[in-house]
Amino acid sequence: MLQGKKIILGITGSIAAYKSALIVRGLIKKGAEVQVVITPAGKEFITPITLSALTSKPVISDFFSNRDGTWNSHVDLGLWADAVLIAPATASTIGKMANGIADNMLITTYLSAKAPVFVAPAMDLDMFAHPSTQRNIEILRSYGNHIIEPGEGELASHLIGKGRMEEPEAIIAVLEDFFTTSALLQKKKIVITAGPTYEKLDPVRFIGNYSSGKMGFALAKVCAAHGADVTLIAGPVSLPTPAGSIRRIDVESADQMYDATMECFRQADVAILCAAVADYRPATQQTTKIKREQQGAMQLDLVPNKDIAAALGALKTADQLLVGFALETADGLQHAQGKMERKNLDLIVLNSLEDAGAGFQCDTNKITILSRQGEQTVYPLKSKEQVAVDIIEKIESILC
Ligand code: PMT
User: Fold this and answer.
1) Nearest CA residue ID for atom 20, ligand 1
2) Residue with the nearest Cα to atom 17 of ligand 1?
3) pLDDT tens across 194-246, in order?
4) How confident is the model at residue 55, as a pLDDT?
5) Same domain, yes or no, for 178 and 200?
6) Cβ neighbours of residue 243 under 8 Å, at least 6 residues apart?
């Protein structure tokens, strides 16, 4: 899976830098093309000559060459890579990555990279356990970076504990696994619905809900990062379209979302229905503003909207995968299970407003994924992007 993959190997100032030579050799043996970007401190631990001899490329460390003024473009480098691996990653580099402190070539390259990023921390046990390091690692996770946990054992300080960079073969295996599973989504056509729907009452009012679109947009971003061709059908939200191969179709009402989704589903391999679709709409839409001419209560006649998930469930072929969401406020598991069966979904993602930090608008979510085979996977509270990664990994486990 590494054949032809372009990998940036970032090396920082840790004694574990000597193992980077083995990482380079292992990646190249598997057919990858490696470009080393090393920090000034990294050069104290391993010489650029060793690394350029192994990669057959000049090692990049500075923004420009002192010899002839050649400019090293971190933007071009970031776009060139299929993956960025930072091994070893010191506490200092992890802190800079988490906080966008772009004071060396490696951090500017990291900030410009569109490719998946893997980080293999290496440091003394107390530095690794320190709350600031742990917080920075969590921030990197929330950005969707993959952390390759360090191992336990004797450290350079001769203390024993967690902080030793993972062994080169294991690091290479993580990259191989990533490219193997992400290949499952390469060029797959994925339709995602996101956001709320607005059901018009008159030219100035509508019936809507609190969905911000964040969960659906995070799914679109992660699917595109895994190489899928994404069609994102978005209700009225104020989010920019994430980068990557994403075609966005903006709709307003449940009816419009139904038409767009039905149209795209025929060619799709997977559909993920994350939108909070209104179940009802006003029976009539006034063409002019409804006036408050009467005293007391007002009656609204509502008619049911079409159920997009159920319609797709009825159309679904054996080659298509249908994933729904269930937003619940009580008895979540029971309701989610019922929806999965009634709508003929393969998976349903339950999120409940009973859990703090879950559901509408926030940047986090807490989910349980139920499968048609009776499997139930409970996840802790995570960023919506990380939740999207969990959902995509579950989809990939079914596709493989
Ligand atoms: O957008 P955010 O602010 O990030 O919030 C994310 C979210 C809470 C909206 C999202 O995580 C979520 O739970 N989306 C589904 C919300 C919902 O409408 O759930 P439901 O239980 O009412 O619907 C069940 C499933 O049927 C959903 O997949 C829904 O998209 C689908 N449905 C519902 C009604 C309808 N007419 N057509 C549908 O396709």
Assistant:
1) 326
2) 276
3) 999 999 999 999 999 999 999 999 999 999 888 899 999 999 999 999 877 89
4) 96
5) no
6) 114, 221, 224
| Nearest CA-CA partner of 346 in 397, 387, 281 | 397
Within 6 A (CB) of ligand 1 lie 193, 195, 211-216, 254, 273-277, 279, 305, 307-309, 324-327, 339, 351, 359-361
Q: Which of 72, 104, 209, 344 is catalytic?
A: 209
142 contacts 383 by C-beta, under 8 angstroms: yes
Distance 276 CA to ligand 1 centre (A): 4
Does some domain include residue 1?
Answer: no
The CATH number of residue 148's host domain is: 3.40.50.1950
Same domain, 147 and 194: no
| Structural domain containing residue 70 | 6-182
Domain termination residue (choose one: 134, 149, 182): 182
Q: Are residues 214 and 328 in the same domain?
A: yes
Structure tokens at 318: 């054996």
Q: What's the gap in Å between 325 CA and the centre of ligand 1?
A: 5
Nearest by Cα to 232 from 189, 267, 286: 189
Ligand 1 pocket test, candidate residues 198, 211, 270, 331, most atoms within 8 A of CB: 211
Domain count, the chain: 2
Residues 229 and 126 placed together within one structural domain of the fold: no
Shortest-distance Cα residue to atom 1 of ligand 1: 213
> Do 33 and 78 fall within a single domain?
yes
What type of residue sits at position 334? Answer: Q
Instruction: Give Cβ neighbours of residue 373 (< 8 Å, ≥ 6 apart).
Output: none
Co-location of 305 and 385 in the same domain: yes
Place of tokens 């009402």: 253
- Would 233 be classed as within a structural domain? yes
Q: Is 72 a catalytic residue?
A: no
User: Contact, 111 vs 122, CB < 8 A?
Assistant: no
Q: Which of 191, 277, 350, 381 to mutate to test the pocket of ligand 1 (most atoms within 8 A of CB)?
A: 277
Residues 239 and 207 in one domain: yes
Are 111 and 196 part of one and the same domain? no
pTM for this predicted structure: 0.74
Two structure tokens written together for 356: 């703090």
Task: Considering only residues 222 and 23, tell me which one the structure prediction assigns the higher pLDDT.
Answer: 23
